[in-house]
């Protein structure tokens, strides 16, 4: 298995901005860093650092927990995101990761476990792709055998209530067979953060969420 993480450097005012509007941008950056740490750990545990790729937006020099994040990225392949919008950056991240089976996630599901990533990877044995729905209408994981069908996502609106359905339709129109993985809840709001921290109390995300004293 190879894992591709598409993420943003946890910089105050640039990461988790929707959450930052309610808890403050400094706290939101700490929360984003914790979520990224959990995601990197899960990816490495599932595939090994040598089989992990990070497509990063922003500069780690300005990020919260930069030293820890760099330590976790030892052995990873790290590339900068390219593109005018998120859909284009996502497609380019898959092209950069190259051919072969890849399980791609973002940094908004700190509760994602190595076992869940493995489920997505196993679905590629008899499907071209696997897609995991998020509760807000988006998706949290996209596994694929080859990056070619992912090119179809360049025209898919992201962060909408129909992004999962639109993504699945685009992949199928491109000729891919698509399996469903278990769904997860993205962390975008205070309510999301409370729910995910309660469901996954062992995570760094839950520890930081509790520590920042969010209402």
User: DSSP strand (E) fraction?
Assistant: 15-25%
Silhouette: globular
Spatial strand sequence of the major β-sheet = 3-2-1-4-6-5-7
Top CATH class? Alpha Beta
Order of helices and strands: EHHEHEHEHEEHEHH
- Termini separation (Å)? 39 Å
Q: Estimate the mean pLDDT confidence.
A: 96
Can you say what the CATH homologous superfamily is?
Spore Coat Polysaccharide Biosynthesis Protein SpsA, Chain A
**Biggest sheet record:** 7 strands, mixed
The overall strand count is 7
Low-confidence stretches: none
- Quaternary structure: single chain
Quick description:
With 215 residues, this protein is an alpha/beta fold. The chain is 40% helix and 18% strand.
What report would you give on this structure?
The protein has one domain (3-211): Spore Coat Polysaccharide Biosynthesis Protein SpsA, Chain A. The longest helix is centred in the first third of the chain and has 23 residues, at 25-47. The chain has a 7-stranded mixed sheet with strand order 3-2-1-4-6-5-7, with helices on both faces. The protein is built from 8 helices and 7 strands, in the order βααβαβαβαββαβαα. It is an alpha/beta fold and 215 residues long. α1 (17-23) packs across α2, α2 (25-47) crosses α5 (114-122) and α7 (190-199) crosses α8 (204-211). It is globular. It starts with a strand and ends with a helix.
